[in-house]
């Protein structure tokens, strides 16, 4: 019976289905996804206990995946897709019920649960999602998003989009979903507030001298201080400006 269940899960993964489908008949005793956990209701990313089994290494179609064991800095660019409506109500890898109207996502290796900022690189729109599932298992895709998240990113009709996925660490404030014009990039992270302020002044002077409309600001994230620059309309422009700034200073 165990071998049959393992085979079923493996086949589901092989064809690109998220774990929500593979675990629809499991006997997991896990909490359902309550509205109070919605990203829309959060002002800052909470520190959550990582799932005991969803972060263990696993193998799909001959490839082994090693989920990250802690929430830390992470950035990735690739193609994103979104769940079909037939996944509604099924179990995710975290044991929570999938809800297409919640801002959630599946990722092969990001910690479960954790939060990520996803940016559509074609239009600059951003959304923060809660990672609570594994998948997709296509070579050219890095994340599966809920319908609500895909809708906010503006690619429901297209089906897929080139995105940037950035892990958000606990304590970091969540900005409202972006419609362009509110993209910020992290320049440097410091353990000392004094050093962060010195860097902030240097970057501010550089932007003023260049006649730039962008500004830099200091944000405290846990026990560190991050200097950010923005806002930008497009992610590509933000990345170019960051590279230029880091080269100049």
From TrEMBL:
Gene Ontology biological-process annotations: cell wall organization; peptidoglycan metabolic process
Gene3D superfamilies tied to this protein: RlpA-like domain
GO molecular function: lytic endotransglycosylase activity; peptidoglycan binding
Keyword Signal: yes
Keyword presence, Signal: yes
Transmembrane regions listed in the UniProt entry: none
Domain of life per record: Bacteria
Enzyme Commission numbers on file: 4.2.2.-
Signal peptide per UniProt: 1-22
Keywords, in A-Z order: Cell wall biogenesis/degradation, Lipoprotein, Lyase, Signal
Enzyme kind, highest EC tier: lyase
Domain SPOR span(s) in chain numbering: 177-249
Coiled coil, from the record: none
Similarity field: Belongs to the RlpA family.
Function: Lytic transglycosylase with a strong preference for naked glycan strands that lack stem peptides.
NCBIfam families found in the cross-reference section: rlpA
UniProt name for this protein: Endolytic peptidoglycan transglycosylase RlpA
Species annotation: Snodgrassella communis
Name of encoding gene: rlpA
């Amino acid at each position: 019976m165990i071998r049959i269940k393992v085979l079923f899960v493996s086949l589901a993964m092989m064809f690109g289905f998220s774990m929500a489908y593979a675990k629809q008949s499991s006997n997991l005793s896990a909490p359902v996804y309550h509205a109070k956990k919605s990203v829309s209701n959060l002002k800052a990313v909470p520190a959550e206990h990582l799932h005991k089994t969803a972060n263990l290494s696993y193998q799909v179609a001959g490839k082994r995946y090693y989920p990250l064991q802690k929430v830390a800095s992470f950035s990735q660019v690739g193609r994103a897709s979104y769940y079909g409506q037939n996944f509604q109500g099924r179990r995710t890898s975290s044991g929570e019920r999938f809800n297409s109207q919640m801002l959630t996502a599946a990722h092969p290796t990001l910690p479960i649960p954790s939060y990520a900022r996803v940016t559509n690189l074609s239009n600059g729109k951003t959304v923060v999602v809660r990672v609570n599932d594994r998948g997709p298992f296509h070579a050219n895709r890095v994340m599966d998003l809920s319908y609500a998240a895909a809708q906010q990113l503006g690619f429901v009709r297209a089906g897929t989009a080139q995105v940037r996925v950035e892990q958000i660490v606990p304590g970091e404030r969540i900005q409202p979903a972006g419609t362009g014009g509110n993209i910020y990039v992290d320049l440097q992270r410091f353990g000392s507030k004094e050093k962060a302020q010195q860097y902030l002044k240097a970057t501010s002077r550089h932007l003023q001298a260049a006649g730039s409309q962008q500004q830099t600001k200091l944000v405290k994230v846990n026990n560190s201080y991050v200097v950010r620059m923005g806002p930008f309309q497009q992610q590509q422009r933000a990345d170019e400006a960051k590279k230029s700034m880091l080269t100049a200073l």
